[in-house]
Amino acid sequence: MMSKMKFISFIPWVAIGSVIGSFFIVPLMPKIVDALYYKDKYNNDAIYCFEQYIDSSYTIKVAMPSGNSKYFLYNVDEERYPLFERFDTTYNSQNYFNNPCAEYTFFYCREYKKYMNIITFKDVNGNYGNKELYLTVNRDDMNNPEYGTKDNPVPVLKAVGVSEPIWFSGKDSDSVFIEEFYRNNVINYLKYKMPKEEFERRFRSKK
């Protein structure tokens, strides 16, 4: 018995634990965290609900403020109203630049007396200032008094120029392209941006 205890005491448990951690636990950590946290972090059923959101949407016509106007909220508080957001989808930091990201244009809409946010999950590379736009908004969002505030602006997932393109490339004048862009924009908005509790209430509860 004593010989066994002496033998056990000589086993380098710390070194063995370090080897196990280095070769097994550490490499598996991203997969473990992804399975526990990221798997259900976002609204993965958005692909099945986007048509319902689109069907309840309509187009409004607005005149956008000038680029340096206080009506563009970024000009008032750039920390509170950022131009960009990235959504983490994995624990693996090497995947950072592959994570989806959204561009935001927060502004006050004078015609409808609501705060709105033009959201795009693709770089538009254009200009909204001093232009007349057709904005596509969701009816439920517009009718909900909880939307349209500074803290919770109405999401705008499609914006095209009335008489001139917004995108410098002019791609938003292509109706086929812009409809595909809009479809993908809605899916990404519902999946990554809409709060999970709201998504469950508006879509999952109706199944």
Automatic annotation (TrEMBL):
The keyword Transmembrane applies. Residues 46-203 form the DUF8188 domain. The chain crosses the membrane at residues 7-29. It holds the Pfam family DUF8188. It comes from the Bacteria. Keywords: Membrane, Transmembrane, Transmembrane helix. InterPro entries: DUF8188. This is DUF8188 domain-containing protein.
